[in-house]
């Protein structure tokens, strides 16, 4: 054999290969060494006959074996070329391009925020996906959040603009900002206070009637805020002389308040992504159903009139009354597709545990950590093959 062929390596990934010399008709090899391994970040251990290291330069490595047969102790060394191909790190192949400066609705590629003004902490981060960066598109996701110290309500909203809608980046922004604006108005806050006696009744008698009373209250508060989000999008479309569907977006919203020893969590959900209550080691409580269809990318959007049919809107509003929770999480499908893969997995405790185990390798979720939002934004750069969409997550913990 004129050429020695080693298994392919991968750029920036540990490589280890133990040489079996008889494969290369060199079972009688004596003194030997390699030239060119160090140049690509690898080294050779003669005692173990192994090549180790983390390749730093992709492509064909220029490596040569110098050797003498075992019976030879002098004379010029023989040589054999070594074929070693180092595959490119796929992340290095992704390019980033800026959208045109004259495009309407300019939007930063990232956003992140930390709110520690309440007893619990809210943190959120959003990042343009690799596919949008390569195609010179904007980030279509958005989020907003607020804590009302005077009333004790935590409010979070996350939205994912439709990739096929040319102004969806503005639709998602309007949807999130409207929810925060509407749900923090004095009149709405006063209306929400009427939930307290309904919760007391529900605790004493958790029957269908008491559950419906809370559902009706949320329908008139969360539901009206959602309707206003749609109206604001429609108004913007009219001003722009565009179609409402040009602003298509999903919307996930939660409102949270502590009542005595319990936590009330209400939610509205249209579209894909996910909203869940995570308690370590327990089955998560999912606050809605993802709108997914027969093919990838098929979902429902806030801009669809069918969402506002009374029965449909009511079904999209859920609530839970819990003793405690480790985290309430709102995620766009850039997160759920990468970590859960299927709607069924969204219901599995082990999948949530995996998500938080990986996240907390980079993000310290404590009230005292003033860098949690920066860490969360950095974590959003995680690599999952085939998952290159915008990523947005909001957490109350």
Strand arrangement, major sheet: 9-10-19-18-15-16
Number of domains: 2
Question: Mean pLDDT score, rounded?
Answer: 94
- SSE sequence, one letter per element: EEEEEEEEEEHEEHHHHEEEEHEEHHHE
Structural class by helix and strand composition: alpha+beta
SS summary, helix count:
9
Shape: elongated
Q: Radius of gyration, rounded?
A: 28 Å
What's the story with the biggest beta sheet? 6 strands, antiparallel
The top-level CATH class of the largest domain is Alpha Beta
Quote the distance from N terminus to C terminus. Answer: 62 Å
Q: Specify the CATH architecture of the largest domain.
A: 4-Layer Sandwich
DSSP summary, beta strand count:
19
**What is the percentage of strand-forming residues?**
25-35%
- Helix share of residues? 25-40%
Question: Which blocks of ≥5 consecutive residues have pLDDT under 50?
Answer: none
CATH superfamily membership of the largest domain: PPM-type phosphatase domain
Task: Describe, in plain words, how this protein is organized in 3D.
With 397 residues, the protein is an alpha+beta fold. Helices cover 26% and strands 29% of the residues. Strand 13 (251-259) and strand 14 form a beta hairpin. Helix 2 (168-183) crosses helix 5 (208-240) and helix 4 packs antiparallel against helix 5 (208-240). The longest helix is centred in the middle third of the chain and has 33 residues, at 208-240.
A few lines on this structure:
The N and C termini lie far apart (62 Å). Helix content is 26%, strand content 29%.
Identify the notable features of this structure and list them briefly:
397 residues, alpha+beta, Immunoglobulin-like, Phosphatase 2c, domain 1, six-stranded antiparallel sheet, five-stranded mixed sheet, 9 helices, elongated
């Amino acid at each position: 054999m004129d050429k020695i062929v080693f298994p392919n390596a991968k750029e920036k990934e540990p490589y280890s290969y133990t040489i079996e010399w008889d494969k290369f008709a060199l079972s009688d090899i004596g003194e030997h060494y390699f030239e060119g391994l160090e140049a690509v970040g690898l080294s050779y251990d003669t005692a173990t006959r192994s090549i180790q290291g983390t390749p730093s330069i992709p492509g064909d490595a220029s490596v040569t074996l110098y050797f003498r047969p075992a019976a030879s102790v002098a004379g010029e060394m023989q040589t054999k070329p070594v074929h070693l191909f180092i595959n490119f790190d796929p992340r290095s192949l992704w390019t980033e391009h800026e959208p045109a400066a004259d495009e309407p609705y300019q939007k930063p590629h990232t956003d992140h925020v930390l709110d520690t003004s309440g007893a619990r902490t809210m943190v959120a981060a959003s990042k343009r996906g690799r596919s949008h960066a390569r195609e010179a598109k904007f980030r279509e996701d958005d989020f907003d959040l607020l804590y009302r110290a005077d009333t004790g309500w935590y409010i979070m909203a996350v939205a994912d603009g439709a990739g096929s809608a040319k102004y969806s980046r503005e639709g998602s922004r309007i949807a999130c900002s409207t929810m925060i604006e509407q749900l923090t108005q004095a009149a709405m806050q006063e209306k929400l206070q009427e939930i307290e006696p309904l919760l007391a009744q529900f605790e004493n008698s958790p029957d269908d009637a008491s559950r419906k009373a809370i559902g009706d209250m949320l329908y008139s508060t969360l539901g009206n805020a959602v309707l206003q989000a749609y109206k604001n999008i429609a108004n913007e479309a009219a001003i722009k002389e565009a179609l409402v569907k040009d602003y298509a977006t999903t919307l996930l919203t939660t409102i949270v308040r502590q009542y005595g020893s319990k936590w009330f969590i209400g939610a509205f959900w249209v579209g894909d992504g996910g909203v869940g209550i995570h308690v370590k080691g327990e089955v998560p409580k999912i606050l809605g159903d993802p709108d997914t269809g027969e093919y990838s990318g098929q979902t429902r959007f806030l801009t669809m009139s069918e969402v506002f049919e009374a029965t449909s809107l009511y079904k999209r509003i859920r609530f839970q009354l819990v003793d405690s929770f480790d985290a309430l999480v709102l995620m766009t499908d850039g997160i759920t597709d990468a970590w859960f893969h299927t709607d069924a997995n969204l219901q599995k405790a082990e999948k949530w545990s995996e998500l938080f185990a990986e996240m907390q390798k980079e993000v310290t979720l404590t009230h005292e950590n003033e860098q949690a939002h920066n860490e969360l934004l950095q974590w959003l750069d995680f690599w999952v093959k085939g998952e290159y969409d915008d990523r947005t997550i909001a957490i109350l913990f």
